[in-house]
Amino acid sequence: MKPNATGAGRHQILRSLAAAFVVAFVATGAAFAGTRERLSLDAGWLFHLGDVAPPAVKGHGMSYGSAKAGSAGGAAATDYDDSDWRRLALPHDWVVEGPFDPGENASQGYRPRGIGWYRRYLGVPASERGRHIELQFDAIATLSQVWVNGIVVNRNWSGYNGRNIDITPYLRYGEDVNTIAVRVDADAQEGWWYEGAGIYRHAWLVKRDAVHIATDGVHADPVRQGERWALPVSVDVESSAKAAHDAEVEVSLLDPAGREVAKGRAPVHVDGLDAATARVELAVGKPALWTLQQPALYHVRCVLRDGHGELDRVEVQTGFRTLRFDADRGFFLNGQALKLQGVAIHQDHAGVGVAVPESIWEFRLRQLKAMGVNAVRFAHNAPAAEVLDLADRLGLLVMDENRNFNPSPDYMQQLTWLVRRDRNHPSVILWSIFNEEPLQGSEVGYEMARRMVAEVKKLDTTRPVTAAMHDGLFGDVNVTQAVDVAGFNYQPWAYDRFHKLHPAQPLTSTEDTSAYMTRGAYDSDREHHVLDSYDDEPSEWGATHRKAWRAIAERPFVAGSFVWTGLDYRGEPTPFEWPSASSFFGAMDLCAFPKMAFWIHQAHWVKDRLVLKLVPHWNWAGREGKPIRVMVATNAPRVRLLLDGQPVGEADVDPIDMVTFQVPYAPGRLEAVALRDGKELGRDAVETSGAAARLVLTPDRAALAGDGLDAVPVTVSAVDAQGRPVATANLPVHFEIEGAGGIIGVGNGDPNSHEADKGNDRSLFNGLAQVIVQSRRAGQGPLTLRATSPGVQGAVVVVDVKAVAPPPAVPAAEPFSRIGGWRIAPAQAERPDPGMAPSYGDMNTWGWGEPPMKQEPETPPWRVYRASFGVRADRNDGRGRLLFREIAGRAQVWVDGVKLGEKTDPAPGPLTLALPKGAAWRTLNVLVQSQPGQPSGLVGRVVVEPAR
Ligand code: GAL
User: Fold this and answer.
1) What's the CA-to-centroid distance between 542 and ligand 1, angstroms?
2) Which atom of ligand 1 is the closest one to the Cα of 379?
3) Which of 5, 1, 8 is CA-nearest to residue 32?
4) CB of residue 489 inside a 6 A radius of ligand 1
5) Which residues pair with 318 in a beta bridge?
6) pTM of the model
7) How far apart are CA 220 and CA 633, in angstroms?
8) Distant-in-sequence, close-in-space partners of 540: CB < 8 Å, separation ≥ 6
């Protein structure tokens, strides 16, 4: 801690030092450590599936009491008994744990949603008094309310935005423990896709000095000025201090190697409970550019200091790049035309639902990058913050989309939250205010959009705004007139017409394709909800992958494509319904295993290496002599096919449509040879296999960090006795794991599967399944995964869990049953009736209080202190104790009319009484008798403790 860090004294000292401030600052330099702590609040939650109705409010006393701050009822109450709730760690999606049910919503994946409650206890040391303490939830699906110590502190109406809640004023310190309660209503839905439910992203506790940099308060977005760059940085400083404060912000720019390359300072004056902004503009010479191939990342470090040292510091990522949408020539990155080879994706993954670990996100994005994707649209909502960090790091462009089309204040806040959080990311190139809104072609839609665009522009002028429209483009008044870039969902027929009518307005596809494919399937079988992989199953409103891309590729004025979708997602099992439970649109399945669409786009998009993929597999027993359709995806101009070395076909490749052959089936090895000018560029092969003989486990990475967060997908496959992959294997597989981690989910990419995502069993689907394993916090050593299946040889793989410093976290606290809500009788001359209570409706004759309740020396000498309290089951077993930390005077304690004990020594001191088993709700009367001339009362806390 800094010297003189708290209290008014500090400000007096500051005022007297004001003149010497700069000198003092220079003299002390950066010798003080920053005080910010960002602590994970993921561990230690209690969960209850289902609603907990608060008790009906009846009668004057209850009505009056429940209307007061801190008096929330039911599971929001501080003393609610949650002793039988499930203990778990966030992120948590309860929907993915549930069963499939044809009565539930197809769009959400046929699983029950419902209502759930979370509670957590939080201890804050007394030494933290005066600091600013913020509770952060990265997202909660769907509607949620948050209480701290029975006071409602947040209501949120979207499952996709984070919220940063200043809980400083409500906190209790020291021995007392705080209660956080969260009610989540996931019956409310915001989408027509799987949304999951619960606190499915991370939670944090951020502790800062009272004078600190606001959350998402740093804005740094480089601007090119000819050959040089300017980096305007604004830093929002806010204060929960009691007095005004003078400080200084120092901003430094660190290059990718961590060297400081520019620095500037600005003073800032912030009043107590107010905010102020410091602005610094850095000049930067020749920075390394952020490109898709080499996404050079710089860091902007902002340090807030006063004359005593560092108050706070924040570091944000930035990248030097320019972007531009041109009406004739599409998108430009760093001055060069770049076609957007984009995909839209939702956020759920096999096994884990929407509670996706960052490392699994990295895996998903790497898979997309391997496909040749350079842009991602997170449909139709904000992604998790760490996903954008990954996009920055991996070199992916992002269309960042707002969920709700609504400029009213609550909803506008969702939009401004998104822009404030994401505007430093070099990956973000385009804001999207909505997807497919029926009002898009109307005056109302235009007026709503105009307001939302204006709010975005107040926060960021460097990126254009779009809206993903599926109609209304040509209305007299429509949303294209309010946005910078016209966004087309489908409607490829309209590209030329719009461009002709609005030659100065850039346009992009914001969504296209919507074609179906089942991974590893090569015959459509609609009866069984299977769709083949030859890219000949478009939706009625979409087009095949090849046709959609052709319409975009051939038009330079269309900035790019966003294929619906890069990855399958649960829900929206179009064109089917039950029993299909997840989508067929993905270029990859729910596990991110490639379908043929992956290879087709890879052939379209990858230019710097050979792409060559041959399908189908070559296990067609029973179809001998019959033609099998063979498709080759390649960026080579010509392909020759060989069956067991004999030519069976050769043809030029259309760079968009690819090439197909009919090859009469005979078991053997089918090879595709990529050719250019008669020269061989490479080969791909499929080979007829025997029956599955052995399982194979292939982890995506060989090691995990032992932080309890890192996770790796392990591919499960089968090979025959000769070691050839069996692409048609559908074996049931059982998993066992031991060591420094566990299984967090399983999947196989079959959209029709109803096998559980959680647990230790999963079948292969067309030759593949996936197990996701995660390290344990403070884990170290081998993590051994075993796979077995009847009749075949099992497999074992060992992932090495490496010791790492555990990420800073708030330890879970145990509930603290403090008795509060005391009424205090007026002083009495005689020993009062032990059952004495205020008269019905009298809220004024008796006082109200919380310990310390200390009466100055007084006569008459008697007072009654009365409280009602709930006894948790774990304290109501006859072994619980009622503890009075300090009573001044003599005292008699009565619970529900029965005398529990007394304190005969009038000197201030504690009293401990056994609490007999009894009703869950009790009434306590304490009769205190003061000594002449001495203070009296319940001075210390009154607590119910479990047996130790
Ligand atoms: C679009 C919509 C997407 C998805 C897709 C399926 O109209 O924006 O969310 O529903 O259709 O084809």
Assistant:
1) 10
2) 9
3) 1
4) yes
5) 298
6) 0.94
7) 43
8) none
